Amino acid sequence: MNKPCCAACADHSKEMKAFDAYLKERAKLIEKNLAKFTAKIPNAPKILTDAMDYSLQAGGKRVRPILALATAEAFGKKAADVMPAACALEMLHTYSLIHDDLPSMDNDDLRRGKPTNHKVFGEDLSLLAGDALLTYVFEVFAQNGKIKSVGAGNTLNALQHFAHLAGASGMVGGQTADVYAEGMGTQEATSARAEKIQKTSKKLAGKSLHYFLLPQSVKETTPENVLLYIHANKTGALIRASVETGALLAGVKGADLKHIQKYAECIGLVFQIVDDILDVTASAKQLGKSNSDAQNGKLTFVSLYGLEGSRKHAQLLIAKAQKALDSLKTARRKNLAPLYCMAEFFKTRTY
Ligand code: IPE
Ligand code: IPE
Ligand code: MG
Ligand code: MG
Ligand code: MG
User: Fold this and answer.
1) Per-residue pLDDT tens over the stretch 109-140
2) Number of structural domains in the chain
């Protein structure tokens, strides 16, 4: 028998095999509900809803909504109690991917095994499809307030946290630093983007590197600080939002909220560390997306710490995430297995 990996795991390989089936079944459930929501968009040109659906229905692991369901279930709610919010999380993530692939961002051609949204619908419509998904997110999330077992108060609280983590203070902030850090992952280790815009914009000429890359709260513009800010926000923030949404809709408070937030923070960072590793070690076919980090000179865990250093970071963070789960008091122990397994999946995933 294989050594158990965590408190919820009796036989590791058996547990992870069951988790694989769980992920597939949950992804199907999310997809069914996503289709219900997008079938209900009235008064829009068909090309717009087609562009939204194209990326939303293209597949994907659906780990963010699955995390929201699993967290809510660990604290005694049912999957159906948080389904609108879970679907909203996936819509927000999908908009972020559509915009991330645009020529002015990462300039990628392949996503979820298909040509990127702008390759099919053009850049103009890709921007608008992303905007429309982002806006629809709030309409869909708000519907969770009508579910009696959750209520309007918990929904409002969760929505406020989610919006905070999705915007300038979270994902969008991280994406901003990510694009301006382009070039920092090369031998030159300078910001090619910042230098370029400084040549054409009088307003931005002479601005410090800090201005492009970091919030005021981070003092020193070191590559380590920039990398951590990027990863914790461009990717970590939405993973945190997923877990927090599940917890806040379930009314979790106090020490347990802190523990579950710690879990989310650790696995969120691991998710992007492994994304950086796979960009180097896996093929575009295996990932279903272009691997363009080196070409774009991205500042990544691999460019700064190498493959082995990155793997070590991920391992340490997973141990911290498991410890945070071990500390939970009000969670239903028997329902925690998916959260333990998700941490393990984030570290070992190959796609
Ligand atoms: C890709 O996210 C973008 C990152 C934040 C690394 P996923 O790896 O979750 O992409 P899908 O949803 O499965 O396509
Ligand atoms: C993207 O990070 C994070 C988002 C907010 C979409 P990456 O640029 O590394 O994601 P991939 O590799 O294109 O999926
Ligand atoms: Mg990117
Ligand atoms: Mg990208
Ligand atoms: Mg990537």
Assistant:
1) 999 999 999 999 999 999 999 999 999 999 99
2) 1
Can you give the CATH number for the domain in which 300 is found?
1.10.600.10
Answer yes or no: is the C-beta of 275 below 6 A from any ligand 2 atom. yes
The contacts of residue 54 (CB under 8 Å, 6+ apart) are 114, 117, 120, 121, 129
The ligand minimizing its distance to the Cα of 97 is 2
Q: What is the pLDDT of residues 193-234, one digit of tens each?
A: 999 999 999 999 999 999 999 999 999 999 999 999 999 999
**Counting beta carbons within 10 angstroms of the beta carbon of residue 144, is it exposed (0 to 12), middle (13 to 18) or buried (19 or more)?**
buried
Report CA(318)–ligand 4 centroid distance (Å).
24
Residue 299: inside a domain: yes
Domain residue limits at 30: 16-348
Residue 150 lies in a domain: yes
Structure tokens at 258: 């802190």
Residue 340 within a domain: yes
Instruction: Confirm or reject: Cβ of 106 under 6 Å from ligand 2.
Output: yes
